[in-house]
Amino acid sequence: MKDDLDSSRSLDVEDGSNDGTFRYLVQKGLIGERPRVEGRYRGYGLKKSCDRWVALDRHGKEIGSLPVHETDIWMSDPAVPSTVGVPTPEVATEILGLARQLRLLTKPTNALSSAGYLVQSLRQLSVIEGLTERNPFIIGIERVALLRQLLETDGPVTRELLRCIVELGQTVSRDQVADQYPVIVRRALEEIGSRIPRAILAEAIKHRKLIERTAAKASTSRRAPGVLEHRVSPRLEWLVDLGYLSKDGIRKNTFEYRVMPEAVQLLSDLDARFGEKEMESSVASGQWRSNPSWNHFRERIGPMPFPESLLKAYKLLRRRVGPSSLRDVTLLTALLSEHDVSFGEVHKDIIDYAAKAPGVSLSGGRYSRDPQNIHIAETELGLTQ
Fold it and tell me: Is the CB of residue 255 less than 8 Å from the CB of residue 233?
């Protein structure tokens, strides 16, 4: 991963298609008019002179091309909603840590989990359907699975964070939300206290007390962004990536946000379903149907009737060996369905279908006898005679 984050390619200063990337580098302060002795672009300078870009080497001599990190080329794309938090080789371990926290990677080996495979499959479908470019910072259909994982791992805090920003008004800042973070954590803990194991509850209480102590210290001193801001910033940026906050009309590298109507609807869905079994999948599939900012994704997917939707979902998620996650197949089937059906309704349809289709079998998981996995034979998929 470090090599990928450190890769670069030379961009011709005379090529007009590179103008956006060069402007991004200058606006972000990543490169200056004079060559610098430190930073990602040490030894290089870049400036606009007489309506043309001029790149300089470490000796101040003009050069015809500038080596630019691939991540900066991606981030300079106008379709990227926010330019806060550019990944660098130095934070590669943190990126892997986030993927593990979202349960996209398994902890011992960093292998793709079932959820990670779902995200990867939806990403590939987005590229195939032309819904997104290969720029990893432009999220396609996989946003549905990412929303589910966010709610699964951070649902209570995300819910109260949404409540906070909706109450604050149409435009909010990171600092405003950070000031309210102790309240957000307290509300979240009050909601889940009776639903989680005692050991996890004890850790959650310790976290709440830490946040309260941090807030008390912060109120008596002027400081640079600290613990509260650093806990709030990633969550706000995730909501930007998923379309619930926006920076339209605001500089993309600032910590100010516009609250979209979709955020109000997501909060309403979470309030209505909070505490339900498979709440995360139900809300994510419901958002797929109701979120107007996702319309262009739905229109391009080509909805289909059941069981064709199930068979296509299974093909997309089929592993080389073994069954697939019933939960993931159900979510993808709901996305592909031509009817406005809930996650629970699709789950029941699949259970009923498996009971009568000879090539479909369900199996329990390691800790449960309830159906957790699904296997569909190649004959049922129409892959063999």
Answer: yes
| Alpha carbons 56 and 58: distance in angstroms, whole number | 7
Token digits of residue 70: 């691939």
Q: If we measure between CA atoms, which residue out of 246, 242, 268 comes closest to residue 259?
A: 246
pLDDT in tens, 199-253: 777 888 888 888 888 888 776 655 555 778 889 999 999 999 999 999 999 999 8
**Superfamily of structural domain 302-381:** DNA replication factor Cdt1, C-terminal WH domain (1.10.10.1420)
Distance in angstroms (rounded) separating the CA atoms of residues 283 and 275: 12
Domain spans of the chain, in order of start: 2-75, 89-294, 302-381
Closest CA to 252 of 71, 24, 32, 74: 24
Positive or negative: CA dihedral 21, 23, 28, 33? positive
Q: 143-168 vs 326-336: helix axis angle to the nearest 10?
A: 80
The DSSP code for 132 is S
Q: Find out whether 11 and 66 touch, Cβ atoms under 8 Å.
A: yes
Report pLDDT digits (tens) over 143-177: 999 999 999 999 999 999 999 999 999 999 999 99
Collapsed DSSP state (helix, strand, coil) of residue 113 = coil
What whole-number distance in Å separates Cα of residue 290 and Cα of residue 270? 14
Distance separating alpha carbons of residues 36 and 114, to the nearest angstrom:
45
3-class state of residue 325 by DSSP: strand
Whole-model pTM above 0.85? yes
Task: Please give the DSSP secondary-structure letter assigned to residue 260.
Answer: P
